[in-house]
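Re: weekly structure request thread

Next one in the queue (263 aa):
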Amino acid sequence: MVYAKQEAVITIADDEQAVLTISNMSVDESVGTITLTVTLEGNIESNISVDYNTSDLTAVATEDYLSTAGTLTFTPQNNSSTITVSIVDSDLVEGDERFLVNLTNIQSAGLTVTLARDNSYVTILDDDQATLSIDDVTVNEATGLATLTVSLDQVVDSVITVDVTTDDQSASAEDDYRSTSGTLAFLPGELTKTVNIALIDSPLMEIDETFLVNLSNLKAGTADVIFDKPQGTVTIIDDDPAFVSVTDISVNEDAGNAMLTVS
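Done, posted below.
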């Protein structure tokens, strides 16, 4: 029996794979630059590369960070690489914001390389704070109106609302002024609002009187806004004069006493 020569080709399938990983990061707005590390887990026999770029979420390129893009290369001797992104430190009070650093387009020369995740969330922690205040005013009761100004000390990039109410002191609502309540809304970028309160010009002669205008229930979304002076005082100057008069009389010099009327 004659056997023909037979050959078999055996292919060994590599069941190992490498994985690229990148983590989320939170940084203060004033940090200047951040460095994210992309790590290759597993062994490779030749160079591989992966592209990266940034994209907006609530953070906006050029306003909150500087966009960047490029390519990272990994070698059998080097299993990590870094991405640097510049952070913009603005004076705007805007709350915490986020953007993405994305990984795409793995070039692995036939090697099995996957992404554990294809992006990193970078959170920029805003370090700016605004304060809200209301002023005090002094007005003549005859003017008919008291106007107070509510002010922010910095520009805020979100809608702010605050409730306004009045409260008696020596002045009484409906006798000296009209009780007032409501809500003020600051749109992004607005710095001042006014509160107008009607005054009652009574004919009574009174001493100067006061009442309070209170701010409460401040809402600013994610922006850091606090009260600096949440209470304003309105002083009403009374404009009703008082006159003293004495009547004229005629008496004989031997009358002894003279009676005059003072009113």
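The CA atoms of residues 133 and 229 lie 4 Å apart. DSSP finds no helices and 18 strands in the chain.
Next request, please.
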